[in-house]
Specification:
It is a single chain. By secondary structure, the protein is an all-alpha fold. The protein has one domain: Growth Hormone, Chain: A (Up-down Bundle). The protein contains 15 helices and no strands. The radius of gyration is 19 Å and the shape is globular.
Length: about 375
Amino acid sequence: MNRGEYTLFIFSNFLYFFTFWMVIAYLPLLLHAYGFTDIQIGFIIGLNSLSSILLVFPLGVFSDSFSPKKIVVFGAVCYSAYFLLLTVVRDFYFICAVVFLGGLGAASISIILVSLYLKLIGENDRGKKVSVMHLGCYLGFGAGPLAGGYLYEIFGPVTMFNCAFALSVVLLLLTLFLRDYPPVVFSFKGYKKDLKDPKVLFLIAAVFILGTHFGVEQSSFSLLMKDNIGLRNTEIGVIFFALGLWMAVLVPFAGKVLDRRPGAFLFFALGLVISSIFQVLTAYTTTFTNLLFIRLLHTFGDMLAILEMDVLTALFFPAKRLGGNSGILFCVRTSAIFLCAYLSGYLNDIGGYGMSFIVNGVMVFLFSLYALMLVRKGHFNE
């Protein structure tokens, strides 16, 4: 890949995460203003991820055997339609249908775009190259909610959705210029063989655990900042921007270290330990300053875990079947996101918005200790 292709992938990834987080960070607040219950909000946010589970593996397999570029373009069309329809829909069931469409589009972009990138980067310096892709991700994660917060506060949610729609159209146009990857002959036996590797099975379990904490955050973090701490929308945006910028600064250094890692899953497990501890502590924050400090430490752990997850995906799976196998991992992750987003609604209803952070943090912490024990015993060295 040349520098222009790297730039195209980075900017496309940036626009996807920018628009996704511009909306998802404030969607719970908007739904709350519409009068929906915490349980309904948890279901809708979870549906954004669950919607793609049935189709993302077929789409991934189709991208391997036909054209990953065309699948990304298809996803970008669905993604744009999602933002456009959010400006006119108010009914609960119609919103569910629109969010379902958005989840399908988001999955097609995020999963197939990354798998196409992993196919094209080759085998050398994967940590460094994956960290470059994550740079666009984290900048979008930070800048999207910041821009969304100001747009929401000053002009209202409709303007915010319209801006997201306009940027999604730009993303759609960019996907037309992506380089495609040669297709392979389709065979279920190849995917079945890939999944028999014990390392792959553990990666699947780790991806599920990682997904649970995303479900909690997507359904509850904005509400916790708004109702428990009393932050304004602009302050919520500043929190997200600081976190995104923090991870964007750190990820290139982490990528270089990861290329010299002593063994698989070490960074993943260490990242989850850090992330889980500060996930629990998030529930006890009371001011803008201590919330920002706690979440900076939390997202440092997230960054390590997410970075190694993508590196291990490229390492464990053959490039020619990365689309379908990435789809399998996405199904696992989105199942966890939906489950925990939905369960968070019940926990929030019972014990407030901090309860789901405590329960999830303890669960992730126990898994991460088990993972560290396996790494220490050398189970992943071969």
